[in-house]
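haha ok so turns out i had the wrong file open the whole time. this is the CORRECT one, sorry everyone. sequence first:
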Amino acid sequence: MPKRYLKDFYWKDYLNITIGLVLYAIGLIGFIKPGGIVTGGLTGIALLIEYATESKIPLQNTYFVVNCVLLVFALKVLGFKFLVKTIYSVIVLTLFITIARAVIDKPFIADEPILSGVIGGMMCGAGIGLVFSANGSTGGTDIIVALINKYRNLAFGRGMLLCDFVIICCSYFVFQDYTKIVVALIVMGVMTYTIDMVINGSRQSVQFLIFSQKYEIIANAINKELNRGCTVLDGTGWYSKNPTKVIVVLAKRSEALNMFRLIKSIDEKAFISQSNVRGVYGEGFDKIR
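then structure:
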């Protein structure tokens, strides 16, 4: 596809990234940091350094300097085009954290570290989810895992999880308190779940493969009664060597029950396979972004 067709989407990506970074900065400074909670990633390392030095080294300084060093190495390996949104995110998030620290002079929720951490985790997770949905990155351990993945077959999610777990466990050396680790792991779980919901939560669809001798009646009923399109494929039952028809239907998860009821009312002997689909784009589903 020529580049001119993609230019219309660039500003939307950067808008989503910017909104996501605002949410992340507020969640981090207004909820997570006041509770003495450590997050994963480079932000977690920066928090550990700030806690250990009693705020003599602000977290945004560590975040920015270490990211600059990582980006210098990453630019040679991954290239500027791959990292342009990461560079934008690092600069903007550093700015937003600095502003948030100047504006937010007291925690939004005092003396409730778990509640404050959960709310902060939701905000940070939503922010990171928006950044990821725009194919962006906040840098830090993302860059490290991407560099490792360039030369080693390491699953990105597994690498990130391992880094986050090690960083959170290291908080024990600063606080000498196991409860801090437990709270931090809860916050990490909330963040991970929120990220997944932001990226994939609106794409909960299902796919049906329907095998029936009454495929014409079922296909017509799906079109007319459920207002869903379907596709009929040619197949062969390999055991019987008889030709068969397969109906393929993509539908919303909420429509699954009516789909089963409709098929059962027409052919109780129909064979049905249902599977979850992460994303379905087009008419009647999500818009292609």
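The mean pLDDT is 83.
again sry for the mixup
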